[in-house]
Write a structure and sequence with these properties.
Oligomer: homodimer
Structural class of chain A: mainly alpha
Number of domains of chain A: 2
Strand content of chain A: under 5%
Radius of gyration of chain A: 19 Å
CATH class of the largest domain in chain A: Mainly Alpha
Amino acid sequence: MTIVTRVPRGEARARLLAAARSLVRHKGFAATSVDDLCAAAGVTKGAFFHHFPSKEALGVALVQDWTTTTGAMFAAHPYNSLPDPLDRVFAYIDLRRQLLDQPIPEFSCVAGTTVQEAYESSPPIRQAAAESIGSGAEHVRPHLVAALAAHPVPGVTAESLAQLFQVAVQGGVVVAKALDTPTPAREAFDHLERYLRLLFDRPPT
Amino acid sequence: MTIVTRVPRGEARARLLAAARSLVRHKGFAATSVDDLCAAAGVTKGAFFHHFPSKEALGVALVQDWTTTTGAMFAAHPYNSLPDPLDRVFAYIDLRRQLLDQPIPEFSCVAGTTVQEAYESSPPIRQAAAESIGSGAEHVRPHLVAALAAHPVPGVTAESLAQLFQVAVQGGVVVAKALDTPTPAREAFDHLERYLRLLFDRPPT
DNA sequence: AAGACAATACCAACCAGTTGGTATGTATTC
DNA sequence: GAATACATACCAACTGGTTGGTATTGTCTT
């Protein structure tokens, strides 16, 4: 008598999204088949297409889910409550560096990985990735706005700096994957911090 | 009587690599099928598997071909012959910005795009991408070495700066694809130039 | 409180088309 | 004439997606 432990009713969608997050980070979106996803989630194809009308729809949901969960994670982090805005920026960089203390697939960005494949082949997924990257920039932009208000730097906007953070994050993932080491990503954040300290005339304490 | 213009004998391999470069930049590696490649190259499957033992082998050859052609393009560029090393670095940044005056797929990096998908699924391709990224850093690293020799900056190495360039290039592509505009990539290079001018005490002329 | 009923959540089997790859044949070149 | 450079035809495995069904849940009525 074999006891088949089934996935509890109501969890299928969440498990599919979790499986997708992991598989996409490891193999990319196109290389992850619907069968892969169902097997990893412990669910059948019927369940998959009950919750998602297509594989593309799951891709959109995956990126949106990524946006909200990472958004919640950053929003809840104590760095947001430091009194000085520039300290908040530096604490954000620290947090970013801490995230690199994980295996590479674990710190790679779902939106960034997916958009490379979806840029032309799936406008909806690209759109979701755009919102994700934009929302990600919002984790530093307000602090940069406040810091620049207290200490203006000619020719430098909070928006372009916030996007520079995103470029560093995404580029860090790509280079880390290529060289198979998080070091270049970490050092990119070191340079970013040094750049900001020079811009804002705030030498390391 | 239909005249079928065939691909001249001996060109199949080169045409397959050219087709692969274009298709991979637009759709990614996994989403590009062998049939796609043959159709785009105007060649049959027999030709494909005559020149490449597998799709993976074409992926490796594609990345290697990318490394050599881009390497030759940068090596031949006049920025290398400027007298001052830091001027060479700034001219390299200018060149990088010029490359952004193209449609996004045209300036996206084949190695960077591919490695995201191949990181775990294909060690040989990942290895080729590692060599490509490493070789790419060599287009600035010597100039940074010379610039730092003339004007040392405590705590800053030419190697980590060269890798920062790679992070900016790769991150620029990802963010540009996500937001569907080259602006963040361009501004990342602006910030990079400003950072270097601060580090080397070389205000804009 | 119990029964009817419809929605929801899921499953197993199946489908047509596509995938990477092969076996075999033929025209060119050296 | 032997190697090289292809073309044609084909295949098993897998692809995203569909089908028809079942078990579970909530909801409304009596």
